[in-house]
Amino acid sequence: MCAAAIPLIRIAPHVFQCPVPTPTLPPAYSTNTYLVAKDGEGVVVDMGTDDPDAIQALVDTIRAAGVRRVTALIATHHHRDHTSGLPALHRLFRVPVYIHPLDRARLTWPETGAAALADAPPALSCAGIALHLRHCPGHTHGHLHVEIPGEDVILVGDHLAGQGSVWIGPPDGHMASYFDALDAIAASGCRLAGPGHGPVLEDAAAAARQLKERRLGREAEMLDLLAERPRTLGEIVDAVYGDTVPPGARLAARRTVQAHLQRLLSSGRVTRQFDADRGFIYRLPHPVSIPDRAPTAY
Q1: Per residue in 259-287, pLDDT tens?
Q2: Fewer CB within 10 Å: C terminus or N terminus of the chain?
Q3: Given a cut of 80, is residue 209 above it in pLDDT?
Q4: Fold agreement (9-212, 216-283)
């Protein structure tokens, strides 16, 4: 799958982004592995393919960065496009794979790979560089942010995207928690955000605030639709997205709408009733006045 060299993109003095081709959701076709490297030591964050050529290409890239000893592997969350290559890296480097316990339970690795897993500690060090592992659920229940304040970088997994969009969907995802995670990014004090997909984001706080506003705009759009008439989940998805979503991302869009509806249900702004023919039908609990708004982009 990947015989070509993997790029080594310096995003901070000791932090590198390495886009690796992975089977992920369009429009992305790669997942970012991150390398923290100093004085011959390295920490690797995420690796989303177990393709042997890609594994070797990444190892060559790590060595090209001057790393002689990898001291830790970190998974921001359990999804395969972020973890599939970590068992192979564990076998090569003989170091633990750190992951939050809630996501550790969701991995389906063989027993030999599962033995590599360890609960993520609050902090790690790479040749004196402090890495803070923050539990920030949203995209998954055990999602981690890796804050590297000395480098002015926060690695945010799938909570921000430099390409495409972020999806949050049950049973893994929880929209209210995701909003808290975006607030945590904005409050981290780190200038640069390293997303799971796409290029680095130069203003982490602004990107987090903009994405939260975008999600809130999506909820307002859904409330507008329900003010017109009650609708099923599928009808809301069709009305919101139409044919703008690639077929491969349609399920993610549906699950994201479902996560929004769960948040609206929990706040009492939407109710639902089961219909034997149509399934759950969502409606507003009472008539409300909602001002005109510009459409929200996917």
Answers
A1: 999 999 999 999 999 999 999 999 999 75
A2: N
A3: yes
A4: no
Q: What is the CATH number of domain 9-212?
A: 3.60.15.10
Contact predicate 212/183, CB 8 Å:
yes
- Provide CATH code, domain 216-283: 1.10.10.10
Q: Judge whether 34 and 86 are in contact, CB under 8 Å.
A: no
Q: Which of 221, 219, 227, 220 is CA-nearest to residue 286?
A: 227
Residue 92: C-alpha distances to residues 56, 72, 157, 225, 273 (Å) = 10, 12, 23, 53, 54
For the chain, give every domain's residue range.
Answer: 9-212, 216-283
Parallel, antiparallel, or unpaired: how do β-strands 97-99 and 192-195 relate?
unpaired
Q: Which residues contact 33 (CB under 8 A, 6 or more apart)?
A: 6, 17, 18, 19, 20, 44, 45, 46, 47, 48, 58, 85
Helices 175-187 + 250-266 axis angle, to 10: 90
Task: Please report which helix (H) or strand (E) contains residue 266, including its range.
Answer: helix 250-266
CB proximity list for 17: less than 8 A, separation 6 or greater: 7, 9, 11, 32, 33, 34, 194, 199, 200
∠ CA(220), CA(187), CA(14), 5° rounding? 125
Strand partners, 195: 157
Q: How far is CA 165 from the centre of its chain?
A: 10
E strands along the chain, which residues? 9-12, 15-21, 30-38, 41-45, 69-74, 97-99, 117-119, 123-126, 129-135, 144-148, 153-157, 192-195, 231-232, 271-275, 279-283
In sequence order, the 6+-apart residues with CB closer than 8 A to the CB of 213 are: none
pTM: 0.91
Angle at the Cα of 52 (from 51 to 56), degrees rounded to 5? 120
Nearest alpha carbon to residue 138 among 100, 108, 97: 100
